[in-house]
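Bench notes, bay 3.
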Amino acid sequence: MLTTCVQPTTAGTGPGLLAALGAWTWLGVDPVDTDLAHVLLAHPPGRSGHDTVLAIEARMRHLSASLGGLAEPPDLVPDLGERLLIVDTATVLLRFHSTPFGIQLPVRPGWTQHVRDHGQAVIVIGLDPLPRSADLPRVDTYLDAGLASGRLLFGLARPACPPPATHALP
């Protein structure tokens, strides 16, 4: 029997992919100048021959599908449902379908409070690589280039309702 091992090019939404992703959060505005919380997820540049631009794009599209399917710029931005779990003002987790894993987002208390008050944040997935160490000017350049080339996907995520409080009676 001949067994061939093939390196997968589109790893699932497992802990390896999620741990490798870069995540950035900020408060900005939507196209009609309404305040809106933003989250950007981007894959770092490849470290091996298996991390081609096409493989990275495929992983990011798979990630989009595991959030419920994000849209390209001309399309209507989909509601991804309750994807943000707010633990406290400094800890927010982004949750995915069909995996017990998530991403802890880099947030500030003002960002978290805005999401609590307004009930949503836009999730942006970049299809091109971006180093996790990218500073704000580089992220802005990445976003501008991604918008111009149609290489960004968008969706709206809402905070998950906290579980109901249970009180034990004495």
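Next record in the batch:
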Amino acid sequence: MRRHIIAASALSLLCIAGATGVAAAQPAGGHGPSAMVFTITAGSGAAADTDTVLRAATLSCAYTAEGTHPAPRAACDALVATDGELNHLLAAPDTSRACPMYFDPVTVTADGVLSGRRVAWKHTFSNACTMSATLNGNPVYAF
């Protein structure tokens, strides 16, 4: 519940703050605007769970990349590379990295507008080490 409130609040603030600029600023590549909220939560992401938001970031990709994300240009480029299919952010786990076999779920989410289309995506990992190994340093969740 708390995750939904935080994500909705962050998305609302992002939309209010940049609604005029984002709506008018279309990138030259013909793609629509992007304004996203990303979260990393401790928990499985199931509706009945009371997950704890560990980190959250906002990202707006128009002519300029901006938001609370620490590397907005790299994150926008990685999002564009997914061609709207956020499962492409997930790589084969780094085989040189050994992760413990315990269950302490971590869920990543992405909510907002990506290239002009509404997106609501989440993926749950068995633990934080597995998340890190599977995302393989992808800049979208490097916050």
